[in-house]
Specification:
There is one protein chain. The protein has helices at about 10-20, 40-45, 50-55, 70-95, 100-105, 140-145, 150-165, 190-205, 215-225, 230-235, 255-260, 265-280, and strands spanning about 130-135, 175, 210-215, 240, 245-255. It is of the alpha/beta class. The chain is globular, with a radius of gyration of 25 Å. Strands 2-1-3-5-4 form a five-stranded mixed sheet, with helices on both faces. Helix 1 (about 10-20) runs antiparallel to helix 4 (about 70-95) and helix 4 runs parallel beside helix 8 (about 190-205).
């Protein structure tokens, strides 16, 4: 991978990480394996010792070297770059008048680093209106391959979950907390969630659901509280307000892949589904 393969945000973030780790000098482009060097080569590679007097003495009239830039400068640049990305996302999202427009706007947005490694952008354009909107966690392998918000075994379970409260999956609008699969199914970062959020807020405004369901802890943290615990928060009603001020009754529950991995949580999920049904009546 060369520097051309990285975005400006990624390069700045990598530089900030190195500064925080204590790196303050570039030695060379190629790493040296000291185990393969002879003792003479190691001695030759070491810089000559400097005396304490010479380290503090300066020639008359000479200016002292400027101090190294503080870490705060690099952090500020990264923050400014993120703010620019978020402003671009908000501008693109707010200009969309339909889900088709929003899909086109999302296709032109390159501010989220996840887009570079994903196969597909996961974005559903139907239905255009729905009483229930569900925001899932990050896309996984099946969703990435098919470009659907819910696919494979997750979709089969989702269909059964919705049927249990008298709903068809075709009548429910499904979205994801990010639109691209994180490599290795890792949790999306705070920046990933923030970059996608303006587009999801616009989805909510266009769909105008009566009830919003957040499935999974990443989704809960991205929309309600960055430190929230799904086990403590699930099943409790709150209100989520979009950037336009629309306040929607919102509840958090388990995502299908979580229930497939831990079936014992299905009893709690059933309680949450009954709460959702009562709110839709």
């Amino acid at each position: 991978m060369t520097a051309e393969d990285w975005t400006r945000d990624e390069l700045l973030a990598a530089l900030t990480w190195q500064l925080d780790a204590g790196v303050d000098e570039a030695i060379g482009d190629i790493a040296i394996d000291s185990y393969e060097l002879s003792q003479e080569q190691i001695k030759a590679a070491k810089p000559p010792p400097t005396s304490s007097s010479s380290s503090h003495a300066t020639k008359p009239g000479a200016q002292a070297a400027p101090p190294a830039p503080p870490k705060a400068v690099a952090n500020k640049r990264v923050l400014q770059s993120l703010q620019k990305t978020l402003s671009e996302a908000l501008k693109l999202a707010s200009s969309a008048e339909s889900l088709a427009d929003l899909s086109t706007a999302l296709a032109s947005f390159d501010g989220c680093s996840l887009k570079k490694t994903a196969i597909n952008t996961v974005f559903d354009q139907t239905p255009s209106k729905a009483d229930l909107m569900i925001i899932m966690g990050a896309p996984r392998a099946d969703e990435d391959r098919e470009g659907k918000t819910v696919a494979g075994s997750n979709r089969k379970l989702m269909i059964n979950m919705l049927k249990s409260i008298g709903l068809n999956i075709e009548d429910v609008y499904l979205s994801s907390c990010v639109f691209w699969r994180p490599p290795g199914d890792k949790k999306p970062t705070t920046n990933d969630l923030a970059c996608c959020k303006p587009f999801i807020d616009r989805q909510i405004d266009l769909i105008a659901p009566k009830v919003l369901v957040l499935m999974g802890e990443s989704t809960l943290r991205g929309f309600i509280d960055p430190d929230a615990s799904l086990l403590r928060q699930r099943g409790k009603w709150l209100e989520y307000s979009t950037s336009t001020g629309n306040a929607i009754p919102t509840i958090a529950t388990f995502a299908p892949h979580m229930l497939l991995n831990t079936p014992r949580q299905k009893a709690l999920a059933w309680q949450d589904l009954r709460e959702i049904k009562s709110k839709l009546v």
